[in-house]
Design goal:
- Helix content is 54%, strand content 12%.
- Helix 3 packs antiparallel against helix 4, helix 3 crosses helix 6 and helix 3 crosses helix 7.
- It has eight helices and six strands, in the order αβββαβαααααββα.
- The protein is of the alpha+beta class.
- The longest helix has 26 residues.
Length: 213
């Protein structure tokens, strides 16, 4: 018969295994946000989105890669919205391809190519994080940094299709009343400017109350 220390060691090991499995299962079921490597999906009309497809609140985002306030939102406020509302299934973020200038439209076309590989959110944030040194000539380096398939990325970027998508999306944005960036629509309500998270939270809570009367 095994000695008491051996039995206790076996029991202890079994407990550790069970606890480890529980933790792994919890991590696997945890809704991922872009900062944690979540794959972004595409809406039926081709825009990248993150979150529950049927979330009660949708935030449509219009940003320009040359806009410093857009950078502030992408790096400071957006992660908080993801953590507090996207990961809990309450909000869906939808990014719209947009560019005021010919140069930023080329950058947005690169984002289209990232979206085709389900990696829009990480690429988008990487571009904003490197806004000071971002040029149309170094897009491939940032694409490589986030692990995109470079053969597919380069082929996509050289194609006119990605640029046409950006131009069509930009035209739709103008038609919707987007005249400055960043601009947001929270369940259809237009919001302009990189508001602090607290202001976004108040708007989201208001939209949630309206969606669940």
């Amino acid at each position: 018969m095994p000695s008491t220390p051996v039995v206790l060691a076996v029991i202890g090991f079994a407990i550790l295994v069970v606890v480890g499995l529980v933790l792994l299962t919890g991590e696997a079921n945890k809704p991922a946000v872009s900062g944690e490597g979540a794959a972004t999906k595409l809406t039926p009309d081709g825009f990248p989105y993150e979150g529950d497809e049927n979330a009660p609140v949708t935030i449509d985002i219009y940003s320009d890669y040359g806009c410093s306030h857009c950078k502030d939102f992408a790096l400071e406020t957006e992660p908080l919205i993801e953590q507090n509302y996207v990961a809990t299934g309450k909000v869906k973020l939808v990014w719209h391809y947009f560019g005021f200038s010919a140069e930023t439209q080329v950058v947005a076309a690169a984002a289209v190519c990232a979206a085709e590989q389900n990696n829009y959110a990480q690429f988008n944030r990487t571009l904003f994080a490197n806004q000071a040194t971002l040029t149309t000539g170094n897009l491939a380096s940032w694409a490589s940094q986030v692990g995109l398939d470079m053969t597919a990325f380069n082929k996509c970027l050289q194609s006119s299709d990605s640029k046409i998508k950006v131009q069509k999306s930009t035209n739709l944005a103008y038609a919707a009343g987007v005249n400055a960036t960043p601009t947001f629509f929270i369940n259809g309500e237009k919001i302009e400017g990189a508001l602090p998270f607290e202001d976004f939270s108040a708007k989201i809570e208001q939209a949630l109350a309206g969606a669940n009367p």
